[in-house]
Amino acid sequence: MLRRWLLAGLLGLHSLAAWAIAPYIAGDRVAAGEWPVVAAEVEKKLSAAGFQVLGRYAPRGLPTYGVVVATDPGMLDRIREFGGMAVAAAPIRVGFTTDGAVSYTNPDYWYRAFLRTRFAQAEAAARAVQSRLAQALGAGPGFGGDETAADLPRYRYLVGMERFDDKKNLLAKHASFEAALKTVEDNLARGLAGTSKVYEVVLPERKIAVIGVAMNSPANGDAVMLNKIGAQDRIAGYPYEICVLDREVHAFYARYRLALAFPDLGMGTFMRIVYAPEEIRTTLKTVAGGS
Asked: Which of 12, 28, 129, 223 is 20 to 30 A from 233, comparing alpha carbons?
């Protein structure tokens, strides 16, 4: 009898680990309207649910699409405890279109990927975020592919490709946290390499920060890439983030970050943007002040 109970428990744990999790959740539609009106409606819903709105993103070349970025105070408390690259989990991204479609990043997916072994310690906060997002924005079906709970903390698209903590993430080193942060902020304000700042979360007591980077180059910006792979409905995967960790500036290498955002896309589709990983790294390295 005991052996049967142990086997049942192990099978239960395996089923939880094998549960497929989608990167995005379809929300309830809002009234169609002009871009700023739809963005304001999404922001209103998020604020009413206790989220802190951080910024808006209007990708140049996708005039009917947008993103509102928010964060959650409870999750920020966990991130503050963890430090390091966990700061990448701070933003909650909500995509919308001017015809009223709404979608958002699935907390269960992105927190497992970015908090990794710390997810269990933050699970209560993650569940609270998920519940309040569902109440504020609706909770339709997940979409955009799926990965298992067990695979997300060590995710990579294919054998040999980059993971969360790849050495290619490092973009630049500076004399101090303050110098690193100022370099990124100043370069975004100058619009270097066709970039601008979408949002910023700074936790100075832990010397960590995450900044959303709009990449709007007409040659290889976000809209160009999304159009090439036909993934406009996953607009909530943007903007790309750049992180300041003490005196270092990091950003996930694109063969990890883009694959995490679009796990359902095949290799043939990704080959249309085979240039993207190094071009994104070059852009973000310029923003970071790397040599």
From this structure: 129
pLDDT 10s digit of each residue in the chain, 291 long? 333 333 334 333 333 445 799 999 999 999 999 999 999 999 999 999 999 999 999 999 999 999 999 999 999 999 999 999 999 999 999 999 999 999 999 999 999 999 999 999 999 999 999 999 999 999 999 999 999 999 999 999 999 999 999 999 999 999 999 999 999 999 999 999 999 999 999 999 999 999 999 999 988 899 999 999 999 999 999 999 999 999 999 999 999 999 999 999 999 998 999 989 999 999 999 999 997
193 token code pair: 């390499």
CA distance 195 to 257: 18
CA 60 from centre of chain: 19
CATH for 20-288 is 3.30.310.70
- The pTM of the full predicted model, rounded to 2 decimals, is 0.92
State the DSSP string of 128-158: HHHHHHHHHH----EES--EETTTGGG--SS
Residue position matching structure tokens 């750049």 = 242
